[in-house]
Structure formats: C-alpha cells, structure tokens
Amino acid sequence: MGVERNELYGSCSKGKMESKVDRKSQDPQVNISAMDLSTPPPVSATSQQFSVMGMPVHLRDEYPGWLCDRLAQGQGTHVVTLNTEMIMLAETTPELARVIHQAELVIPDGAGVVLYLRLYGVHIARHPGIELAEALLQRAAQTSPALSIFCFGGEPGVTETAMANMQQRFPGLNVVGTEHGFHPPEAEAAMLERLAALQPQLILVGLGVPRQEYWIAQHRHLCPQAIWVGVGGSFDIWAGRKFRAPLWLRNHNLEWVYRLYKEPWRWRRMLALPRFAWRALIDRVAKKFRR
C-alpha cells in the first residue's frame, strides 16, 4: 500500500468516493455493561483486514474518502487508531478487545503495527490518527454545506482553542460544539442531551486510551449516523500546548522516541513496545516452523 500523503489525504470531491483495495480531567464514567459488545460487523468487501496479535487492522489506500462515503450513506462509523500500547492492553482487557473488534474502521496508527505487518510482507505507511482527523476536518470545511463537528475532551479551554486554530487553518469549518473532558457526572448528562440534539456529523473524542474507545462505544447510539474518532492528545497539539515530533522522525516511524523524550513519565507505558516486538518475532518464527 505504498501511497503518498497527498493521495491519501487529498481534497474532498463531490459525489461518491471510489476506494482502492491493497493486496494485502474527571474522566467520564463508563458503563461497560451497558455497551453492545456483540459480534463485530463484517468488513466491507472493499477493504483488506489483517490481524495483528488478534486485533483487526483495515488496510486501504484511502481512508477519508471511504468515511465520506459512509457518511453520505447514513452509516455511522467508529474509528479506532490502533497502536502497540493499545494492542498489549487489549490482550489483558477483554472489554477493550471487543470494542476494537466492533469498530467499523481500525487504522494502523503505531509504528509497531506497521513493522508487524512488514514481517508478513505487507508494506504500508503509518497512518497517524491525528493526520486522519485533520484530513476529515479539511474535507468537512470543503463540503457544501460544511459538515457539522463536535469535539469532546482535553482540559478546560483547550478544545475551544484547538478548534479556533483549526477554523483559521480550514476556513468554513462548522464547529457546532466543544466540551472539555472534566465534567462531573451530573454535568455530563446535560452534555449528552446537547450532543443528541445537535446530531453532528463528525465527533472527535480526546479522552485517552482506553476511555475514549469505551465512551464512544457506549454513546455512539446518540448520533448513529456520525463518524466518531478517538483522537487522544490531538487537541493539545492543535491548541499549541504540545508539538509533534520533527518530520524526519515521523517518516522513520520514530515519533514514539520524541514523545518519550518530551514526556519521560511515559516510560512505563513504553515498556509495551519491547514486549510487543518480542512477541511479534516469536509469533512470526512460530508460524514459519508450523508450515
């Protein structure tokens, strides 16, 4: 799937998009028991699914256009941006594993996911969730009429600043609501009523993994035709509070090194990376010997 960034995240065109197939805070209280964690939906015939340690990854040449198609058809979509930490957490957290399997689109966000696929001869570029979200925002602003957007997460004031900056970057962006992620339970109920009343078409949720995945799975029925994307710390970056790694590090799948340098407290979470790499090599060798 060797596609260039400008092809993958190009401008939005009118009509039905054609997709290609490659060969290969006070955190919100999440009621897991209220979630529908039944059998995951079938993968579209226009996408290729690959398993990474039991977690699905949907491989496409073009993600934003496919999402625009589903939106035009009134089909809701939960987008999961899969990385190594999430995979290792899902191994010991059945609730998270089921939510990932239930999502209609799981993209290869982490460098570890991309390298794992390469062990099996599947060569694709890494698709960071923040870049997919930005591509969707750009398309939302270019659509006539502009798509409606709702953002939830981050510290008080951060999400508002982030979306004000994005409105300058993408003139015409129709942000119908922003809410920080530190609501007490009684205030969150009112926010959910507002969300249901607005019926936005694109909903970005930045609560961190796995809270944002649980929250989307639990509440997506409120806006059943929307695109829901867990965006992690993207609001902080768009607000100018944090910065992504230099481009040369990103291009070499080393953004995680920069994040560890800037946020050394993450070292415990980063221990998932060597564990994942060791597991990936063992699994690959084991499968070769079983042939």
Number of contiguous helices:
14
> Can you tell me the CATH topology of the domain at 48-240?
Rossmann fold
What structural category arises from helix and sheet content?
alpha/beta
Tell me the CATH architecture of the domain at 48-240. Answer: 3-Layer(aba) Sandwich
Average pLDDT figure: 83
**SSE order, one letter for each helix or strand:** HEEHEHHEHHEHEHEHEHHHHH
**Biggest β-sheet: count, sense, barrel?**
6 strands, parallel
Strand content: 5-15%
Gyration radius, rounded? 18 Å
Q: In a few lines, what is going on in this structure?
A:
By secondary structure, this protein is α/β, with parallel strands linked by helices. The chain has a domain of 193 residues: Rossmann fold (3-Layer(aba) Sandwich).
Can you put this structure into words, describing what you see?
This protein has 291 residues and is of the alpha/beta class. It has a domain at 48-240: 3-Layer(aba) Sandwich (Rossmann fold), CATH 3.40.50. It is 45% helix and 14% strand. It has 14 helices and eight strands. It has helices at residues 5-8, 64-72, 84-92, 94-102, 111-119, 129-142, 158-169, 185-198, 211-219, 234-238, 247-251, 255-262, 267-270, 272-290, and strands at residues 48-52, 55-59, 77-82, 105-108, 148-153, 174-179, 202-206, 227-230. The chain has a six-stranded parallel sheet with strand order 4-3-8-7-5-6, with helices on both faces. Strands 1-2 form a two-stranded antiparallel sheet. β7, α9 (211-219) and β8 (227-230) form a beta-alpha-beta unit. α3 (84-92) packs across α4 (94-102) and α3 crosses α14 (272-290). It is globular, with a radius of gyration of 18 Å. 38% of the residues are buried. Residues 1-45 have low confidence and may be disordered.
